[in-house]
Amino acid sequence: EVQLVESGGGLVKPGGSLRLSCAASGFTFSNAWMSWVRQAPGKGLEWVGHIKSNTDGGTKDYAAAVKGRFTISRDDSKNTLYLQMSSLKTDDTAVYYCTTDLAGFFYDSDNSRVMGGDYWGQGTLVTVSS
Amino acid sequence: DIRMTQSPSSLSASAGDRVTITCRASRSIDSSVNWFQQKAGKAPKLLVYAASTLQSGVPLRFSGSGSGTDFTLTITSLQPEDCATYYCQQSYWTPWTFGQGTKVEIK
């Protein structure tokens, strides 16, 4: 069974930092490009950024709203994705989801094709408030 | 950035009705569109990828169409369990961007 489990959310003051984790299981994490997507309370979905698989270079890309403040990383030995957030603003208040990247596909260990955006975590709430 | 303009923002229809949601991209994006369904308090679920390919396990009453700049998600016979918010998303060029969402309710 595929699982993506986010953790690390909570209440933080403006200007503070927080690190989110996303533990993956049930699929070949090292093959997957991974994204973070957020959703402010009562609002729509917003892509935060992604990281390619290490075999594809491990490069990262970010939305303009978080570039320079957020850093995505991965540890394939632990099947875990991270989102380091700093200089947090009240506008960063949202549920943060990790997901397989929202484009393309990757091959799982059984050669099955997994489409981008098919696997999502349950989300973790980050509240930035004084 | 590629802007995705989705309409309507909400709709109310009867069970069994045909429902259509449209999404327009600010520039041509070939067929690089995903459609997601999000139920209250839950993570999004992938329904359609590459504009018209139904993800495995998704009921056949859902279908997607379009290419270039104009895309459509259709539910041929609305069911009570289809109450949700639906989002289009372009996968042509980063930053990946979403439409504003369409909230579907049953009358």
Any overview of this molecule?
The complex is a heterodimer of chains A (130) and B (107). In chain A, a hairpin with an 8-residue loop joins β5 and β6. The radius of gyration of chain A is 14 Å and the shape is elongated. The model of chain A has no long low-confidence stretch (mean pLDDT 96). The termini of chain A are far apart. Chain A is an all-beta fold. Chain A has strands at residues 3-7, 10-12, 18-25, 34-39, 45-51, 60-62, 70-75, 80-85, 94-100, 105-107, 113-115, 124-128. Chain A is built from no helices and twelve strands. Chain B is mostly beta strands and 107 residues long. Helix content of chain B is 0%, strand content 50%. Chain B has no helices and eleven strands. Chain B has strands at residues 4-7, 10-13, 19-25, 33-38, 45-49, 53-54, 62-67, 70-75, 84-90, 97-98, 102-106. In chain B, strands 2, 4, 5, 6, 9, 10 and 11 form a seven-stranded mixed beta sheet that branches. A four-stranded antiparallel beta sheet of chain B has the order 1-3-8-7, with no helix packed on it. In chain B, a hairpin with a 6-residue loop joins β9 (84-90) and β10. The termini of chain B are far apart. The chains are: A mainly beta (130), B mainly beta (107). The A-B interface holds A 35, 37, 44-47, 50, 61-64, 97, 99, 102-104, 115-118, 120-123 and B 1, 32, 34, 36, 38, 43-46, 49, 55, 87, 89, 91, 94-101.
